[in-house]
């Protein structure tokens, strides 16, 4: 009886962040968050179809864009400021982050993406390997990574890899550094199951802290996907007034915070 009771208490404890999240749930924000994400996904698909039809892969009007049809990765925009590599979240293509790319382009940054990440369904180590290979192939240095959600896990893994010497720092929005209890609802071998608090990627990331001082983690006020929040010990953590997992990417205040953090990490 005692053993079963102990196991039950452990199961209850691991779901406490989700229960606290449900207690403070905001149905309107939740609905608005998913509605924005759905529109952005549809927009990203439409952008890709239009770009392919026009024989171009970069952002509309992006000076210096060199993403040719068939390339696996490339520069979306040239600029005098530090190069930025965008890392999307799970089930997001780089085009999901087009509004963020346009904002960074307008701020004068050279913006890069890695098409080979696809929808970011692979584990963080493989995503980091592909992103690192891109940085090495282009001999990019002094790069600042800008990531959404799972992209932050990929970025941190990249910083810990041999190609991490090419990276100055990481700005991450709504990243599940400690995993998400909702991922326990999925088999552990699936892309979403890899984000459970007990998953290998999450546990491995927690054992190494040497790069965390070069990470700025932006944590939404309320996040339907990351009930425990996006605070990372040792990083500079910024609590956002914006709520949602996706909506902060459309918030001008958050975009300005990202630009400030990129400038800070790049040494400007």
Describe the structure.
Helix 5 crosses helix 6. The protein has a 7-stranded mixed beta sheet, sandwiched between helices. It is built from 8 helices and 7 strands; from the N terminus they run αααββαβαβαβαββα. The longest helix has 28 residues. The protein has 268 residues and is α/β, with parallel strands linked by helices.
Which properties best describe this structure?
268 residues; alpha/beta; seven-stranded mixed β-sheet; single chain
What's a quick, concise take on this entry?
The chain has 268 residues and is of the alpha/beta class. The chain is 39% helix and 15% strand. Strands 1-3-2-4-5-6-7 form a 7-stranded mixed β-sheet, with helices on both faces.
The total count of strands amounts to 7
Element-by-element helix/strand order: HHHEEHEHEHEHEEH
- Unreliable spans are 59-73
Tertiary shape: globular
CA-based gyration radius = 18 Å
Helix content: 25-40%
Write the layout of secondary structure elements.
Blueprint lengths: L1 H13 L1 H8 L3 H28 L18 E5 L3 E7 L10 H9 L2 E6 L9 H15 L4 E6 L1 H10 L7 E7 L26 H7 L8 E5 L16 E4 L12 H15 L2
Parallel strand pairs: 2-3, 2-4, 4-5, 5-6, 6-7
Antiparallel strand pairs: 1-3
